[in-house]
Amino acid sequence: MILLQPVYSIYEWYISRHLDKDKIPKHVAIIMDGNRRFSKMQGNVSAIEGHKRGVDTLENVLEWCIDLGINIVTVYAFSTENFKRSEEEVNDLMQLFVDSFLSISTNKKIHKNEVQLKAVGKLDLFPQDVRDAIKDAEKSTENYDKRLINIAMGYDGRVEIVDAFKKIAKKVQDGELNPEDIDEEMINDNLYTAGLADPNLVIRTSGEERLSGFLLWQSSYSELYFTDSLWPELRKVDFLRAIRSYTQRQRRFGK
Length: 255
Fold this sequence. Notes:
This protein is an alpha/beta fold. It is built from nine helices and six strands. It starts with a helix and ends in an 8-residue tail after the last helix. A six-stranded parallel sheet has the order 3-4-2-1-5-6, sandwiched between helices. Helix 1 runs parallel beside helix 9 (236-247), helix 3 (47-68) runs parallel beside helix 4 (87-104) and helix 4 packs parallel to helix 6. It has helices at 5-17, 35-41, 47-68, 87-104, 108-112, 128-141, 157-173, 184-189, 236-247, and strands spanning 27-31, 72-79, 115-120, 147-155, 201-204, 223-226. It is globular.
């Protein structure tokens, strides 16, 4: 791998140089898959080690996005199904969330690049210390408007759509809204991601080729890209390939 590094560096430079800057996606969504498989490949280590390595990868990806002019990133960090994992892994993840969100307030790169952070999903499912850490991170970045990272936690796309319809149904029940007035814009405004532009590109790592409930409504016209690289092992060249693939596609939106 060390011998190949110069080759990858040249390839990274080549791809970056030949990207069509006018077609770079503005919003990239990522399913960060493969942390546990990475841990298993390392031998006798706990699953949390893969998740910790995944946090480092996310920091790298944010830097790459900033360099490319990608201003909105949404990542799938924890689904509602993930609560069914072993008690040890879930507890370790909760502590990792606390540590990671609390570190945002003192992260020089986040503040230097004026990145606003938001968590989206059913946050009430998480322990109080996790919710407090999220509030701390959101508060410390709330005045930034140049770039945005959304962390999807306690998230399930179907539940999100159901919750949106429940909000709308309540307005109909209370006489505030006529059923005939319900349209796509109204549904968008009641999603967890209300006010956010839909992702142009959805990337999934680890070789799996499905959305697993991620941004089901929002990704209806998104381009999809799947890579075999496990999330903790994702290289810049892997990410650039995804962006290049997007810039080379003809987006017709059904026309």
